[in-house]
Specification:
Helix content is 79%, strand content 0%. Helix 1 crosses helix 2 and helix 2 packs antiparallel against helix 3.
C-alpha cells in the first residue's frame, strides 16, 4: 500500500501546521482565548452533527451544551471588560521583599 505514505505525510504536515497555530494563538492572545476557541469549535461540531446527520441530543445534553455556552459567553464578557476570571488571594499585592527577590533573580538571569 504505497499510497499510505502520502496520507501519513499529509497528516504530519497538517498536524504540524495545527500545532503552530495553537502556539501562535496562545503566545499572542493567551490561554483563555485559546480555550474559548477550542470550546467554540467543539460546540459548532456538535451543532453540525445534530443538524447534518440528525443525531439526537437528550434534554440533559442540551442542558450541558447550554451550560457550556453560558460559561463561554461569561468568559468572553469578562475578557472584554478587562477583568480577571479569578482573583487569587495575595496575588497582585507584592511586598517589597518579593519585588527585590524578582529583581535579583532577573539580574542573575540577564548576566
Amino acid at each position: 500500500h504505497s499510497e499510505i505514505q502520502l496520507h501519513i505525510f499529509v497528516f504530519s504536515i497538517c498536524s504540524t501546521v495545527g500545532q503552530l497555530f495553537i502556539f501562535y494563538t496562545i503566545k499572542n492572545f493567551g490561554a483563555v482565548v485559546f480555550a474559548i476557541i477550542m470550546t467554540t469549535r467543539v460546540l459548532i461540531s456538535i451543532a453540525l452533527s445534530v443538524f447534518l446527520y440528525e443525531h439526537k441530543v437528550t434534554s440533559t445534553g442540551f442542558f450541558g451544551l447550554a451550560l457550556v455556552v453560558a460559561a463561554v459567553c461569561y468568559r468572553i464578557k469578562r475578557k472584554a471588560e478587562g477583568k480577571q476570571l479569578i482573583k487569587w488571594k495575595g496575588i497582585g499585592e507584592k511586598s517589597e521583599g518579593e519585588i527585590e527577590l524578582v529583581q535579583e533573580w532577573h539580574e542573575h538571569i540577564d548576566t
